[in-house]
Amino acid sequence: MSVSTISYVVWAALGVAALGLWWLSYLRPAAAAHPADVVGKLASMPVVRVLFVLGFMWLGWHLFAR
Amino acid sequence: MHTRSAVLLAGGVGYSLVAASTTPFTLPADVLTGLPIVAMAVLVCVRWPLRTRKVRTASAFSSTTGHPYLPWVALAVVFVAWELFNYLVHGSRANHPTFSSITDAIDRFYLLKALLFLGWLAAALVIVRRGSRSGLRSRSRFGKAASSG
Q1: Residue B55: partners with Cβ closer than 8 Å, 6 or more residues away
Q2: A21 to chain B: which residues are within 8 Å by CB?
Q3: Shortest CB distance from B127 goes to which of A21, A33, A39?
Q4: Closest Cα partner for A25 from B141, B70, B144?
Q5: How many CA atoms lie within 13 A of B64 on its CB side?
Q6: Is ipTM over 0.85?
Q7: Which of A1, A63, B77, B84 has the most CB atoms around its CB within 10 Å?
Q8: What digits encode the pLDDT tens for the residues B74-126?
Q9: Which residues of A touch B (CB under 8 A)?
């Protein structure tokens, strides 16, 4: 297995894990919070919420404009 | 589906299709990506409460109902570590793709880029709503219900 394949497999595993957690959040909310609740939690932290919003804005700029 | 949601979805899809047709490092791409960023900044300033201390106290329920945020924190840590490793390690980008290089590859396909842009817009909407006064209040009510039940 090449280095490239391993890298993509790990990225794919991370994606599957995110989808799995999303699915789990509907089945067992006590085990995994719903993504919108995670966002709400971040938005309730004074400094983190500013960094979170700025990071999200930068992500869009980085992905689509620059 | 509510009329407002349908209008938002149609508007978002239309905007994403137009934005996806632009090329990075050009003025149209800058403008069409910058507009939602400015809109988000304005909405956050207008709709988010200045202070969050009371809301945080009311919604602190994780100690009574487990740690539902922990799996997401763990996933975020692994994501950041893997991104940094691929970014810093010696070798070609083809062998060590970063999140950016993967999305660059996705952006070569018009419809996938439009979907990605739509997802970014939708996530921005969720962030604005969840951080707004009403969003935080509903979260704190959920927290109280979870800790009592």
Answers
A1: A44, B49, B136, B137, B139, B140
A2: 71-72, 75
A3: A39
A4: B70
A5: 11
A6: yes
A7: A63
A8: 999 999 999 999 999 988 988 999 999 999 999 999 999 999 999 999 999 99
A9: 2-4, 7-8, 10-11, 14, 17-18, 21, 24-25, 29-33, 35-41, 43-46, 49, 52-53, 56-57, 59-66
